[in-house]
Design a protein that fits this description.
Layout lengths: L1 H5 L2 H8 L4 H7 L4 H8 L1 H8 L8 E11 L2 E11 L6 E3 L4 E2 L13 E6 L2 E5 L4 E5 L4 E4 L11 E13 L4 E12 L9 E9 L4 E4 L9 E2 L6 E4 L2 E8 L1 E8 L4 E6 L10 E8 L2 E8 L12 E6 L8 E7 L4 E8 L3 E6 L3 E6 L5 E7 L6 E6 L13 E2 L1
Antiparallel strand pairs: 1-2, 1-26, 2-3, 2-4, 5-6, 6-7, 7-8, 8-27, 9-10, 10-11, 11-12, 13-15, 14-15, 15-16, 16-17, 18-19, 19-20, 20-21, 22-23, 23-24, 24-25
């Protein structure tokens, strides 16, 4: 350590930004200058953008357990085992803060990562966290209510970084309709709201297109990619609804033609080989049929070019509830119908069952790389796990 102190500052910086977050957290206590350095925006950005490999990937795993008084929501921090494709805990499990503990926990979403930050939501509460530095903060609730006799149904939530205004944003799309006895189907309105981390405030979107396709609020039916949030949606046919986070405008994209009609399949959005990827998989709510025997994986080779969709893989898998993530660029992580985490290897076709489970349909996974990115400060307190 004494030798490190004698090195030129540029050499010290070059050494430090290659170290893991756990080591850097300890090194902040060495000197005041090191503390200031490691906390600086420039150092955090250099560490965020450093060269990494698949070995640097971590797994955030959320699941729920049924208990007599409700559900207990648990989060695990995992890392790949040495020399295999196993998953080992790197710290004790923690309870997920703020999210609902009723049956609605099956609607919990994990969105991200974006600069190392991840959003957890049950559509009412929104929690922003950095799993590497174990910090989290409850985003303040939206102040915009609805008039008496009407009900708000949150259809889609998105989280990403606005690179033009250099701020994190959360977008929420809701359908507002009348409650009984005023629930006329013709009385329906789309509402859009955006939370801005730089102002720690919400505002309503102006002129939301009332002809928006309906976004599905299912597991992994949404993803932030190329500066826009994407939801699997429908309007007579299956579409992808997009929200550009810089311009705050909506648009749509087509899905591959074989996936555009309703045919006992569900759809999820992920990223494979850096391409926007659409999974067409068996609907777990239906009885098995020949059309449900396979999962189709489509990638968009040129973003926003509908004609560039290609079918990358067709695989036969065990009965699943939904896709969860792509790990190591070849392992598809799924939750099966009984609530067990499983993987499918695209190279070997091997199916593996992990010793990780939860209540059916409550499993969520995010693959992330460590980041020093701080939780944006606001009216609510930043806390530690």
């Amino acid at each position: 350590m004494t030798a490190m102190k004698k090195l030129p500052i540029d050499v010290v910086i070059n050494i430090l930004f290659r170290l893991p977050v756990k080591s850097l957290t300890r090194f902040k206590c060495v000197t005041k200058s090191w503390y200031a350095l490691i906390q600086s925006v420039d150092f955090i950005n250099r560490h965020l953008n450093r060269a990494t490999t698949i070995k640097d990937e971590f797994v955030l795993f959320k699941r729920s357990f049924k208990e007599p008084e409700g559900f207990n929501n648990v989060m695990s921090f995992l890392l790949g085992g040495v020399g295999d494709d196993d998953l080992d805990p790197i710290s004790p499990d923690v309870d997920v803060p703020y999210l609902s503990t009723s049956y609605s926990c099956i609607c919990h979403q994990l969105t991200g990562p974006c600069h190392g930050l991840i959003l957890l939501t049950d559509s009412t509460n929104l929690v922003l966290l950095n799993p590497a530095i174990r910090n989290y903060r409850l985003i303040p609730p939206s102040p915009f209510g609805i008039q008496r006799g009407f009900y708000r149904s949150v259809a889609g939530v998105g989280f990403g970084y606005d690179s033009v205004h250099m701020t994190y944003k959360v977008v929420r799309i809701s359908e507002v309709y009348g409650e009984p006895p005023f629930n006329c189907p013709s009385v329906m309105e789309w509402k859009g709201e955006v939370y801005n981390s730089s102002t720690d405030s919400w505002r309503e979107l102006d002129c939301v297109d009332q002809e928006l396709p309906w976004p599905y609020n299912f597991a992994y039916s949404e993803i932030f990619y190329e500066g826009a949030f994407h939801w699997y949606a429908h309007k007579n046919v299956v579409l992808i609804l997009c929200f550009d986070i810089n311009t705050e405008t909506f648009r749509t994209m087509e899905v591959p033609e074989p996936c555009a009609s309703y045919d006992e399949k569900c759809h999820s959005l992920l990223v494979l080989d850096e391409f926007l990827t659409l999974f067409c998989y068996p609907d777990p709510r239906r009885e098995s049929s020949p059309i449900q025997e396979t999962i189709e994986i489509w990638t968009m080779q040129e973003y926003r070019v509908n004609e560039s969709w290609i079918k990358k893989h067709t695989i036969k898998s065990p009965p699943i509830e939904s896709p969860l993530a792509i790990w190591k660029d070849r392992l598809l992580l799924f939750q099966d119908k009984s609530g067990i985490l499983i993987s499918y290897d695209l190279n070997s076709d091997e199916v593996k069952e992990f010793k990780l489970d939860g209540y059916p349909a409550t499993l969520r996974v995010i693959i992330y790389k460590e980041s020093l990115t701080p939780i944006p400060k606001g009216s609510t307190q930043v806390q530690n796990f």
